[in-house]
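Listing 4. Sequential folding, example run.
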Amino acid sequence: MSDVGRFTGRHVLAELHGVDPALLDDPVRLGELLRAAVTQAGATVLDVVAQRFAPQGATVIALLAESHASVHTYPEHGSLFADVFTCGERADPEHALRLLATSLNAASVHLSVLHRGER
């Protein structure tokens, strides 16, 4: 079977807790950290969009050549939800989220891996 047109990917969901609330309220810095994590994990970043909400919190979305990555923060709880979905074998979404957790100095990390498409 040819890899062209093959529909397969990994979607990794993450919950990170014990993160500095000031960092979770800084969409520019979160965008930099998300870009660095997915790039180091082998993905190609096409664009990053970030939005801060009032009175607090942020959403950051990275458009990847391989699919997407997103972060949604809750500074009042020191927590965030994130996901990275990549198609193909080059990028490693689990590694990307572990790198992000390290860069955020998260006290706890819970990951769930979903295999999507053909295997």
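-- end of first protein; second protein begins --
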Amino acid sequence: MTVRFHNTGGSPARSGTVTFATHVIGALGVDWATIESAQPLPAPIPAGAARTGTYTVCVDAWRVPLGMRIETQDVTASWT
């Protein structure tokens, strides 16, 4: 998954965390579970600049029974 981060603040983002919320979806479209995973932000990001990060989001096979699928629906970032 590729995510572009824009620092719209007045100071550089020196470090941070990107959190992915991956949903386990059943065959009928029911959301059975949400698995969160976190990885480092592609820092530093200077004030007013943007940076792109590419991430691999994995879910243990036992969490996704046969006939279900996964979708990463939410991405949040926090930085300092």
